[in-house]
Amino acid sequence: MSNALPTRIGILVSAVIPIFFWVLLGTSWAQQPPVGVPPEKARQFLDLLSDPEVKVWLEGKIPATAEEPSAASLADAISSWELAVRARLVALADAIPRIPQEAANAAGIVSRDVNSGRPGLLILILAVLTIVGFGAEWLVRRALALGGSDRTIDPGQAVLSEVAALLTFALAAIGSFLAFEWPPLLRRIVLTLLLAFIAVRVVRAIVRLLFGLAGAGSRTSDDTPTATQVASETAQRFWLRRVSLIAGFLLFGWAVVSLMPGIGFSTDVARVVALLCGLGMLAIAIEIVWRRPGSAASAVRQSLLTLYLIALWLAWVAGLLGVLWLGLYVLLLPAAVRGVGNVAQAFAGRAQRSGALGVMLNVLIVRGARAAVIGAAVAWLAYIWRIRAAALAGSETGAIVISGLLNSIIVLLVADLLWQLAKALIAYRMELAPKEGSSADDVARSGRLRTLLPIFRNVLAVFIGVVAVLTILSGLGVQIAPLIAGAGIFGVAIGFGSQTLVKDVLSGVFYMLDDAFRVGEYIQSGSYKGTVESFSLRSVRLRHHRGPIYTVPFGELGAIQNMSRDWVMDKMALSITYDSDVDLARRLIKKIGQELAADPEFAADTIEPLKMQGVDSFGDSGIDLRMKLMTKPGTQFGIKRRAFMMIKKAFDENGIKIAVPTVHVAGGGDNAAAAQQLLKMKQAES
Questions:
Q1: Can you tell me whether residue 627 is helix, strand or coil?
Q2: What is the DSSP code (8-state) at residue 556?
Q3: What would you report as the CA-atom Rg of the chain, rounded to the nearest whole angstrom?
Q4: What pLDDT does 131 receive?
């Protein structure tokens, strides 16, 4: 296994895991709800809203505010964003000096409500649960290892073993904890930290399994590792450590930040801790950029990528979540799509499904996996951007446009999936040759499908494209009904101005309905003749037997002479001298025809064997004989050439002479010499 494969897997995991978990962290780190509101104030607020005098006052104020312009200008929206960013930065700066005091208060709460006055109780519980989980996991791994007969581990067995071990750890640790009664806050903290630890182990297991599956077929029987294997193992260790660190910062950061409000920390302090965890992930990402194995990027590119990562972290600090997620997608989504596509392709290859079902599953798995990744990214981006885009646009129209653009990506993904599925099925059907021993009707049906399917594919592509465009326009708020009506009128106008094009298209439709020709057949129409190679909506491509290609519009074909349909009758002429035995020649020709019909090379193509029809005429130099041969289209030429060779040999062996033109000269020597000279000139010209 080359060094590039572990690098691709590492990039895939590094791209997918942050996107997956930052969806979880986005709501908890960036948008922490305020610390619980006192119930007394909430009841006072509800009582105030239910006061009739307050209701009357509010009803009087609402029309006054409605008279103000509902849509703020773009400058006002940007100004409000600036104020929000400045307020967030000020709140974060004010939260930093409060960290020691809030940490002391949190320590008191932990000591009183979590440890119950016994220092280290939380840590002791976590240590005991971890030991119990690892002990149960060790027993399961040992039992599974004893069940194997050799050291060779099947990839599927490895996956099941890893899943069983992790489930055992989770059930043993969490089950042991839930078996006893604990204070609510202690229960919440322990379960949250255990779930984070289990999630980190799941990530590590997935990475190891991916590397194991990738390198399962690359190991040699020799125990001595090669240089390529050593480099591959180095890359695997590099990515496993970095991915584990990223997962640790993400998951334990999420756990800590989600627990902080419950032990007395304010929202702003929790955000500061979240940003510090993000700073740790930023350091790991920058280290990956500069030290990634097999990286051939220049220092300039690495520097620009480092600045890009720092800019994304600063956008997170400023609270620009829309910009943050958009930047993350630009950086990670292409790698995630490629990686998921490669994994789906490998999975589809292992399925080994044949036939049309296999083709459909391959397309659905590969293209569907990529579409699912992009669709999930667009859905989350739509959730993040929906409110902010409306505020930036300053009107409801702006929100509709932004939402329509995001929805249009989903429409394009669905259209692409349908098109790829239809195209793959059509290609599979066109490549499917008739089975041996198929009837003439099956062969004809197969040829007709090969002729019609390319036209259907082109029409289907246009239909899917038009429907997708109309759906996108409708999602953007465009009224498509007048557009469709206008397109109809415009189409009629184009039809009158493009009568030749319409004639070609309609002629092609009727040619297909009449089954006049198919792909692979040899046809002739006027001065055009050749083998049909392909079609379009308005023309046919003919390959002449000498090589040139004719692209002929359907409207110019006219009457079609199809030379490849059903059978062909070939007429042959032969002249023998007057002193030859005609009856013997007839018997010899009949015998040769029977031998050719029995020859394995020509038997399948011969419909009626070669035979002599009789004497056609008496020529100047001999008796003209007429012969006929019925074969399958296109095979008569080889049989005809072999027949002439056999006839020449048989005639020579039986004393039958083939007549040749002769000139008899009578008279003086001068005339004879002139005649001989004239004969030589004619022979030279011929």
A1: strand
A2: G
A3: 42
A4: 92
